[in-house]
Design goal:
With 250 residues, the protein is of the alpha+beta class. Helix content is 44%, strand content 10%. It has helices spanning 21-25, 62-81, 100-116, 131-134, 147-153, 156-164, 186-197, 202-206, 210-223, 227-234, 238-247; strands at 2-5, 39-46, 50-57, 88-93. Strands 2-3-1-4 form a 4-stranded antiparallel sheet, sandwiched between helices. The longest helix has 20 residues, at 62-81. The two termini are 27 Å apart.
Length: 250
Amino acid sequence: MVFKTVSVPPVLLNQEPSVHPSCHRETLTCPPCPLGTNCTYYAYCLMSNHFHLLIREREEPVGDTIKRIASSYVYYYNRKYGRDGHLFKERFKSEPVNDMAYFTTLLSYIHQNPVKAGIVEHVKDYEYSSWSEYDGSVDSVFQICNTQTVLNRIPFTELEAWVNEPLPEDVYCLDIEGSSRRRPSDDQIWKLIIEKTGVTNNSAFQQLDNNTKQQVFLELKDCGASLRQLERLTGIGKGVIHRIWNSGKL
């Protein structure tokens, strides 16, 4: 998920010499819900005007989690700087993660935000993300992410390689940034699928041979279609489509 601030000077990272990066993590774990019961955090990245979270909903609905985080931080920030009013822009954006392939894509995307923005050269150099919890540079007492669950599935060396491998320029999780090209409509996408394959619904599309699906997805990528749009229309997971876009193979 992602949450953006209103158009004011950078607000999430007030980098004062006395503020340790762990203090910013308190924004994510504020009362009343104790860590481990409200939700499970897997990754986060605090940028100057927005933040990204990869979380698992547990006892608390995800909307309540974000409301709790946002209201706590707004109260802190407004009191500290003598202002009032809203701090965050619109509603947060979120989407479910249905497979491990897309999970690892999101891990990379979230941690690469500061690199893509030109703030740091390497993922490990950014203080305000959860990568320092994965590489062990943050004391365990300050950790909020369930890194062990991820590392039990993916060895650290393999995860580190994935996170540091630049994602293609056209990968936009949640379609937040968006491409400068105009995206094709659903009807335009189905028109191309029908022209190339003859199938007219997602069930039939899923039964096509892998080579045919690969070629269609690659052409739709060139047309400007998004991962989210293609998953919705074809029923094929974003992680699978992303793998095709990266390697050309299903």
